[in-house]
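forwarding from the other thread:

> can someone predict this with magnesium ion?

sure thing
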Amino acid sequence: MNTEPKPHRAGFVSIIGKPNVGKSTLMNALMGERLSIVTSKAQTTRHRILGILNGDDFQLVYSDTPGIIQPKYELHNAMMSFVYSSLEDADVVLFVTDIYEKHDEEPVVERLRKMTNTPIILLVNKIDQADQAEVEAKLAYWKEHLPNAAEVLPISALEKFGTDQVLQLVLDRLPEHPAYYPKDELTDKPERFFAAEMIREKIFKLYKKEVPYSCEVGIEEFKEEETIIRMRATIYVERASQKGIIIGQKGEALKKVGTWAREEMERFFLKKVFLEIHVKVNENWRTDPKALNRFGYQQ
Ligand SMILES: Nc1nc2c(ncn2[C@@H]2O[C@H](COP(=O)(O)OP(=O)(O)OP(=O)(O)O)[C@@H](O)[C@H]2O)c(=O)[nH]1
Ligand SMILES: [Mg+2]
């Protein structure tokens, strides 16, 4: 019998693609944990969020990233630099597309075509929403337009269809390497980050148009006691008029955000949560490098 221990494998797996194609849903499915927030609106994810999947003989470090766009303001530049730094570190790239995607010649595809040393697994997501002919047309399109893709695979991240196969394809391509992070770590982000994201998710789900995009959330206080976590959060908006919208008539709208976010936090932290939320105006923070720095948008 061969008693040689199996070599340890570890690597960085970058999940990239256009906004709204299902990158965060996929990372959550692959992790079996709801690490990244998911909403029906584009540009939900604003950071590079690591999801670390540990096994006895492997460590797989996923990066969920913001959807790739043409930057329109400073925040977008910061978001895109998260995408491109994750590509630089990648041992494997999961390029997520979906069955709705329109195809223009995109700089990212051009860039991926040149990445001949890094295996690229191209995923066509949301196949639960398409018939077989549509799926096959997409697969054929990508085989032609990204010929260096190691695999082109149809999946449904929402229904976890094909996600086991994605894991296997990634594991097969993971280099021999010691673990990059302690084996009991799940992510690189602190608890406060996830708390802020949960509030942001509810804002994305409850408000319309530009309002969610003008909001940022800070956690000013996070005090964990034996049976309860006490939190004080601030929602920053860009203009005074937005403050009124966030708070709503008699504070009803903000109350909804708070209740919904608190319930989510209690599931995530497995503890009771006391949450207090304030709303402040931080004029045009999305274009202000100093504010962006404060909110953690620097590399
Ligand atoms: N029908 C269907 N919907 C999906 C699937 N995967 C994701 N979605 C939905 O697509 C929307 C966007 O999902 P996200 O996971 O937030 O997409 P994303 O690529 O992370 O988006 P950004 O962070 O904005 O770039 C959500 O409403 C998801 O529920 C899928 O396999 N099938
Ligand atoms: Mg996302």
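The pocket of magnesium ion (ligand 2) is lined by residues 23-24, 36, 44-45, 64 (CB under 6 Å). thats all i got for now
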